[in-house]
Write a structure and sequence with these properties.
It is a single chain. The protein has 257 residues and is mainly alpha-helical. It has one domain. It has 13 helices and three strands, in the order H-H-H-H-E-E-E-H-H-H-H-H-H-H-H-H. A three-stranded mixed sheet has the order 1-3-2, with helices on one face. The longest helix has 21 residues.
Length: 257
């Protein structure tokens, strides 16, 4: 079993090594790493508790599919799955094969359809822009893909899961900026207000102080929150135009709890 202490070492190593590795990875190595992540996803489905409310599951799936319907066609054909796992982590992630994990703690801060769409638009943008595969490839180049997939025998509270390790792998600064901009466009095309992105970041940044809890994972793995909030504000106008065009064309999301 991987303890949190051991996983802290793994995470530190990954955070230190991955950004330095090249973005191009031999095809077989990438394929092997993606296979390992497929194992991680199956472990999550088998061993992590799902949120017991079918209404919550349908709500999250509704928001996710509204985003997916607006992404490039070649990605719409992936075998998408959207699952809300019943854990306190405030995070979400997507695999190269279109498996979206939403940890229920995220819904405490992404507490409106627009804010949830902001998170999912950002994560899906990482996939469509090739960032997910690049990150997986850099993980593979460390030789740790198999370690991560095989290191966990259970998902109990005393161990950091393989999924949590994967979720902490960093994207590059330019990739985060691109995912912010592309994600705002996806959510706007789906009829979600991109201005909610700014409110989401403020809520996440303030949740640690207000609730006395640790920083939300989704925020801690996406660095420089104030600088990125300023960047998003600077790129908001085109997304707002797309949003208003969507409303004018009759697009009205109907995803509610």
């Amino acid at each position: 079993m991987t303890t949190r202490k051991h996983t802290g070492f793994l995470t530190s190593l990954l955070l230190g090594v991955l950004p330095c590795l090249p973005l191009t990875v031999p095809g077989q190595i990438l394929t092997d790493a993606e296979s390992e992540l497929r194992v991680v996803w199956m472990q999550m489905k088998r061993e992590l508790p799902r949120h017991p409310s079918e209404a919550v599951q349908r709500y999250a799936q509704c928001v996710a599919w509204a985003i997916i319907d607006e992404i490039p066609e070649e990605f719409q054909d992936l075998n998408w799955e959207v699952i809300v796992f019943d854990t306190g982590a405030r995070n979400a992630s997507v695999t190269p094969e279109g498996k979206i994990a939403i940890f229920s703690g995220l819904l405490e801060v992404a507490n409106t359809p627009d804010k949830l769409a902001a998170v999912l638009g950002h994560e899906v943008a990482h996939l469509t822009q090739g960032h997910v595969s690049e990150r997986v490839g850099r993980m593979a180049m460390t030789g740790l893909a198999g370690v991560i997939a095989g290191s966990v025998t259970g998902f109990g509270s005393e161990s950091m899961t393989a999924a949590e390790v994967v979720l902490q792998l960093p994207y590059q600064r330019g990739q985060e900026t691109e995912a912010d901009i592309v994600g705002m466009n996806f959510m706007a095309k789906a009829g979600y207000n991109p201005a909610s992105v700014l409110a989401l970041w403020l809520d996440m940044a303030g949740s640690e102080e207000d609730g006395g809890e640790r920083q939300p994972e989704w925020l801690s793995t996406h660095p420089d929150p104030e600088l990125r909030r300023q960047d998003m504000a600077g790129n908001l106008a085109p997304a707002l135009k797309t949003y208003n065009d969507a409303l004018d064309s009759g697009i009205r999301p109907r995803c509610h709890l």
